[in-house]
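Tokens as discussed.
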């Protein structure tokens, strides 16, 4: 079976929404979920506790009050990647695991890059996080190939529509430096060079492709699919305001855990 990973921004869910998100995720078949915009509240803890109780590997760094971050849920045996410990600024927003495949280990990293507005404080915050990310990545770089997923809150050069003036040069540089500095390729673009897709939209005609998957060259060679899942933004109420992004690699995970359905004991509460 191929190695599959899904990333989804869950929007720091309250309990009711977290229950629906847990049910939706439990019906998915991916090996690893990279959840972004997690929080410290009861909704995020519900997801973490349900998956931990079901035998999954749960990587959920400490989230200071009101801070957002990432969580990784894996039905594969995994070890914690060192990048989280190397992150010196807003560390809850970067975490990873290492999983084993028939071609060797793979580092699966999750990132939730801070958003910003026109204020100097938010601009400084985002710039500082990006600088810390590069330092942490460089400090932990080795021969193990990386798959980086998450809500990067940046747009690729040439994004359609262009959204002129909304993003500073340092933000666009973060996207390009993932390739130029770290050797990570935009997996969606590798398979769909000209496709227009959006993972978040204030209006249907003003979409943004914020959620990304970037992979090291050895993984790009095994890339079978990379596609957005828009049903998460539909429905009344929607699960979240972001689309999911699913990646499939022609690698076989070698250490599956014995897991159960994280939502099995709770489905009756949904109806």
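Sequence:
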């Amino acid at each position: 079976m191929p190695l599959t990973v899904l990333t989804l921004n869950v929007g720091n869910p309250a309990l009711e929404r977290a229950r629906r998100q847990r049910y939706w995720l439990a019906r998915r078949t991916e090996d690893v979920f990279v959840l972004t915009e997690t929080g410290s509240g009861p909704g995020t803890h519900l997801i973490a506790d349900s998956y931990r109780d079901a035998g999954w590997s749960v990587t959920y760094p400490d989230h200071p009050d009101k801070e957002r971050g990432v969580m990784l849920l894996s039905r594969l045996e995994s070890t914690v990647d060192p990048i989280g410990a190397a992150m010196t600024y807003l560390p809850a927003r970067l975490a990873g695991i290492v999983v084993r495949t028939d071609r060797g280990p793979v580092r699966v990293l999750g990132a939730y890059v801070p958003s910003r507005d026109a204020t100097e404080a938010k601009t400084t915050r985002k710039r500082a996080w990006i600088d810390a990310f590069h330092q942490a990545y460089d400090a932990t770089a080795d021969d193990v190939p990386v798959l980086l997923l998450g809500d990067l809150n940046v747009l690729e050069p040439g994004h359609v529509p262009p959204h002129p003036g909304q993003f500073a040069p340092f933000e666009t540089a973060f996207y390009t430096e993932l390739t130029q500095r770290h050797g990570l390729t935009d997996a969606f673009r590798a398979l769909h060079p000209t496709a227009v897709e959006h993972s978040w939209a204030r209006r249907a005609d003003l979409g943004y492709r914020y959620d990304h998957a970037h992979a090291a060259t050895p993984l790009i060679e095994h890339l079978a699919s990379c596609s957005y899942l828009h049903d998460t933004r539909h429905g009344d109420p929607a699960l979240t305001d972001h689309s999911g992004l699913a990646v499939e690699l022609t690698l076989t995970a070698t250490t599956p855990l014995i897991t159960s359905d994280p939502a099995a004991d709770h489905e009756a509460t949904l109806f």
